[in-house]
Amino acid sequence: MKTSLGMRAGLLSLLIFVAIVAIWHVATLPTAASGPAVDPEYAKLVGAAAATGSKSAMPTPADIGATIWKHLADPFYVRGSNDKGIGIQLAYSLGRVLLGFGLAALVAIPLGFLIGMSPLVYRALDPFIQILKPVSPLAWMPLALYTIKDSAISSIFVIFICSVWPMLINTAFGVGSVRREWLNVARTLEVGPFRTAFKVILPAAAPTIMTGMRISVGIAWLVIVAAEMLVGGTGIGYFVWNEWNNLSIANIVTAILLIGLVGLLLDQGLAYLARLVTYPE
């Protein structure tokens, strides 16, 4: 039954994909010219073919396929500071996300452990967490640029800020939700606090911690695109903004698809790790 459901879901996904491509193709078919097709200022941007209606200003599915193939054929080329392969741009973005995410994990998980185990620490830190948590990560960017004076490190700092809260809150919740019976058994057996933390609390809280990490990496991947648009230089966010300035819609759509694909891989990687630490009760 499970296999059948998976096959049917896959078939339905394929049909939806075909329908989207078909609608997209029809929507970008050329139209008969009938006088001035678009505003003259817009025509200067989109080109003469789009202005006369003989070619859509939006790329067709075939255009996107050709653009994706072109990028995948040579993803790591370097032809100048503003002309680098999409593989290099994704690698820069991934490196910043993983570094900021890793630093956030080093801070958030131990601190969340402490908050979850100590009601006193929880009450003391809760006002700070509640005030700082809703602040948009990008609001920290000017302060980071002013103090750090390095755009790349500022991007990593923004990723750190946006990643730390979900991991901190989920870790504290997971640790605080460990069953009292398990802790009482450890206490009865005179297990030391350090061993209780690693042998009882950590395995019990691990699925919740992994959920927080999964949420964090998704937010981090969202934020890095906007952060790189602001700071420029390299990265997939800068690539999208640069292609907008070049009015290359096909490159923008290609980048959007690759951003989604990389985000999916990051999420599925952490989902796999979460399954490894989840056990049936």
UniProtKB/TrEMBL annotation:
Indicate the secretion signal residues.
none
The protein's topology relative to the membrane is:
Multi-pass membrane protein
User: Where is each ABC transmembrane type-1 domain found?
Assistant: 90-274
User: Cross-referenced PROSITE patterns, in alphabetical order?
Assistant: ABC_TM1
Q: Which UniProt keywords apply?
A: Cell inner membrane, Cell membrane, Ion transport, Membrane, Transmembrane, Transmembrane helix, Transport
Q: Where in the cell is it found?
A: Cell inner membrane; Cell membrane
Q: Which domain of life is it from?
A: Bacteria
Please list every transmembrane segment annotated in the UniProt record, as residue ranges.
97-116, 152-173, 219-241, 247-266
Database matches in PANTHER family: ALKANE SULFONATE ABC TRANSPORTER-RELATED, MEMBRANE SUBUNIT (PTHR30151), NITRATE IMPORT PERMEASE PROTEIN NRTB (PTHR30151:SF7)
Q: Which family does it belong to?
A: Belongs to the binding-protein-dependent transport system permease family.
What protein name does the entry list?
Answer: Nitrate ABC transporter permease
Q: Which organism is it from?
A: Reyranella humidisoli
As recorded in Swiss-Prot or TrEMBL, the protein's gene is named ntrB
